[in-house]
Batch of 2 targets.
Target 1
Amino acid sequence: MTQELLPGTLYMMVLRTLAAGPLHGYAIARKIRDASRGGLEIEDGSLYPALNRMWVKGWLKAEWGISENNRKARFYRLTAEGRKQLEQETTDFDQLIKSIQLVMRSV
């Protein structure tokens, strides 16, 4: 069973995935799926518009290259601004999780 994403978490997961190095869109989706043990499936209709928005914001750079199966693909990598955004997103998410846990344990 796949889970629905919380609003705002797609950017954070994409940024975290790209922190390890440049990847093309399909590889990003595959890494997220694998890291979540199949619990999260990122659809193309969500991923590619998000990648474009992050590129426009200056969080990513994009270059054309050749994928592992010899196909032309756009590879994305983090910029310095993207690394800062990842830190902020991670901090905000950690605080959100702590707050939710407090509520869940209070009743």
Target 2
Amino acid sequence: MISVAELFKQAAELPEEERATLAGLLIETLENETDPDVEQAWAAEIERRLAELDSGAVRTIPWETVRARVLGRLGKS
């Protein structure tokens, strides 16, 4: 059987996208129960945000702009 340390070492060598996919899959194995109230609240929030986008009440900001602002605030520009 492979040790956790060896498994981590192998996983760390994967490309970033594959590591993210693996992390998501592992997290899903920890979430055995879903709370219907939470699921309903998320669905309502998603619908609300989509309606705001569709109506033009809000506008999106490109990731590059957001990233630059955050890094600027952190002094890493």
